[in-house]
């Protein structure tokens, strides 16, 4: 049985708040306390503690010894310095990062040998508990650590265990692709407006179309079949798809995904 966990989050941005909201929602008997710290933004820290009734800390260094889990919820570029400083404080705590490009091997190189680490790559739907999160673990993660990870992951949505290499390659698919979808949505809204439709109406039409389509996709699980159901050979939809093919839509998406992954890996 897992002992009650004390969790420290370093960072209080959107993803940190998603993790906190998920843990609070789980209402697990395995959680003893959630502590959050956010250097330089006391107003945000106060807002988080007011909204989720967690404990605020001014300095993470003062909290390290009393916690079991540390969640790093900060930009990738802040990790190198923080991990090197953390190495002087940690003593077996599970270290989890939710930053793009920061895999277990990166963390293990900068932390004491034997430190259990994990990398979770959620997407923005974590804010409503609907993320599709990828995750991978380091060499010293045991079954008890896995239980803690499951608690965090269930609070923000669904998850898939991967190798570190797979998370690097799939980050664009699950983490960045929502932005691609939102961009596509913007283009549809703009197209509707060009035909004289009011913006609020255009948004309502597009958002409901995407919502309904995504529910069908989740139910059927076969995008090819669904596309074919909508596409009458030689019809209007087919004509639109032909234009997308002529503009090499699939190639464009492949290049967008490759560029996103390279950037996330610092290439």
TrEMBL record:
<keyword id="KW-0641">Proline biosynthesis</keyword>
<keyword id="KW-0560">Oxidoreductase</keyword>
<comment type="similarity">
    <text>Belongs to the pyrroline-5-carboxylate reductase family.</text>
</comment>
<keyword id="KW-0963">Cytoplasm</keyword>
<dbReference type="InterPro" id="IPR000304">
    <property type="entry name" value="Pyrroline-COOH_reductase"/>
</dbReference>
<comment type="function">
    <text>Catalyzes the reduction of 1-pyrroline-5-carboxylate (PCA) to L-proline.</text>
</comment>
<dbReference type="Pfam" id="PF03807">
    <property type="entry name" value="F420_oxidored"/>
</dbReference>
<keyword id="KW-0028">Amino-acid biosynthesis</keyword>
<dbReference type="InterPro" id="IPR029036">
    <property type="entry name" value="P5CR_dimer"/>
</dbReference>
<feature type="domain" description="Pyrroline-5-carboxylate reductase catalytic N-terminal">
    <location>
        <begin position="7"/>
        <end position="101"/>
    </location>
</feature>
<comment type="pathway">
    <text>Amino-acid biosynthesis; L-proline biosynthesis; L-proline from L-glutamate 5-semialdehyde: step 1/1.</text>
</comment>
<keyword id="KW-0521">NADP</keyword>
<dbReference type="GO" id="GO:0004735">
    <property type="term" value="F:pyrroline-5-carboxylate reductase activity"/>
</dbReference>
<dbReference type="InterPro" id="IPR036291">
    <property type="entry name" value="NAD(P)-bd_dom_sf"/>
</dbReference>
<feature type="domain" description="Pyrroline-5-carboxylate reductase dimerisation">
    <location>
        <begin position="164"/>
        <end position="264"/>
    </location>
</feature>
<dbReference type="Pfam" id="PF14748">
    <property type="entry name" value="P5CR_dimer"/>
</dbReference>
<dbReference type="InterPro" id="IPR008927">
    <property type="entry name" value="6-PGluconate_DH-like_C_sf"/>
</dbReference>
<protein>
    <recommendedName>
        <fullName>Pyrroline-5-carboxylate reductase</fullName>
        <ecNumber>1.5.1.2</ecNumber>
    </recommendedName>
</protein>
<dbReference type="InterPro" id="IPR053790">
    <property type="entry name" value="P5CR-like_CS"/>
</dbReference>
<dbReference type="InterPro" id="IPR028939">
    <property type="entry name" value="P5C_Rdtase_cat_N"/>
</dbReference>
């Amino acid at each position: 049985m897992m002992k009650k966990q004390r969790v420290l989050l370093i960072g209080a941005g959107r993803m940190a708040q998603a993790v906190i909201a998920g843990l609070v929602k789980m209402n697990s008997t395995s959680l003893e306390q959630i502590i959050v710290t956010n250097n330089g933004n006391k107003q945000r820290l106060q807002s988080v503690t007011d909204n989720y009734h967690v404990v605020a800390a001014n300095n993470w260094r003062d909290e390290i010894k009393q916690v079991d889990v540390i969640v790093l919820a900060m930009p990738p570029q802040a990790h190198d310095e923080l991990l090197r400083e953390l190495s002087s404080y940690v003593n077996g705590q599970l270290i989890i990062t939710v930053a793009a490009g920061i895999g277990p091997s990166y963390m293990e190189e900068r932390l004491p040998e034997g430190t259990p680490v994990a990398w979770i790559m959620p997407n923005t739907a974590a804010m409503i508990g609907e993320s599709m999160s990828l995750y991978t673990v380091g060499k010293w993660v045991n079954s008890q650590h896995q239980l803690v990870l499951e608690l965090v992951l269930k609070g923000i949505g669904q998850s898939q265990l991967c190798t570190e290499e797979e998370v690097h390659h799939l980050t664009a698919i699950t983490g960045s692709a929502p932005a691609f979808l939102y961009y596509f949505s913007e283009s549809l809204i703009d197209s509707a407006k060009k035909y004289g439709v009011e913006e609020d109406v255009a948004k309502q039409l597009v958002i409901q179309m995407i919502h309904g389509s995504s529910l069908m996709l989740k139910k059927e699980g076969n995008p090819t079949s669904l596309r074919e159901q909508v596409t009458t050979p030689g019809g209007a939809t087919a004509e639109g798809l032909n234009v997308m093919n002529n503009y090499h839509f699939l190639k464009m998406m492949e290049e967008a995904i490759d560029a996103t992954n390279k950037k996330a890996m610092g290439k």
